[in-house]
Amino acid sequence: MSAHNRIRAIARLTQDRGLSREAAEVIALALFPLDVGPEGVPVSRRFPKRITKRTRRFRKTAQSVARDVLIDLARETIEDYLDLAVTCGEDYYIDKFEEAMAGPAPWAAVSVGAKPDAAPESVQ
């Protein structure tokens, strides 16, 4: 479900708001950080609660910031998610958030049928 929500968010952010694909992927992950499925089940009971609380704060703040600040806010939020994953011992999410912080998220490209090694769109 979260992967589906991320894909929809990416499409809306690129089409409706004119954001680059890379920026939309980062924002979509900040909006929908948890995965559904056996590999995405958190080990800790505290982790989903803390992530949900941080996600609410991101959504509220994102409504009042300029478009050019939104990507930085999303990256900061994902860094917070990574810190929470480390604190709670969530190996799956540590890998996921580290990968997202390293560059364009290949999981998003694979999800919509694009090639994960394709060159990212330039930021204008």
Summarize the structure in words:
The chain is mainly alpha-helical. 66% of the residues lie in helices and 0% in strands. It has six helices and no strands. The longest helix has 22 residues, at 67-88. The chain is globular, with a radius of gyration of 14 Å. The chain starts with a helix and ends in a 13-residue tail after the last helix. Residues 105-124 have low confidence and may be disordered.
List the helices and strands and how they pair.
Elements: H1 2-15, H2 21-31, H3 46-62, H4 67-88, H5 91-102, H6 106-111
Helix pairs in contact: 1-2, 2-4, 3-4, 4-5
Could you provide a short overview of the structure?
With 124 residues, the chain is mostly helical. It contains six helices and no strands.
Summary tags:
disordered C terminus, 124 residues, 66% helix, mainly alpha
- The percentage helix is 55-70%
* Mean of residue pLDDT values: 83
In N-to-C order, the SSE pattern is HHHHHH
How many individual helices?
A: 6
Which geometry do the CA atoms define? globular
Work out the number of β strands.
0
**Distance N terminus to C terminus?**
31 Å
Q: What is the SS-derived class?
A: mainly alpha
| Low confidence ranges | 105-124
Strand content: under 5%
- What does the main sheet amount to? none
Q: What Rg, in angstroms, do the CA atoms define?
A: 14 Å
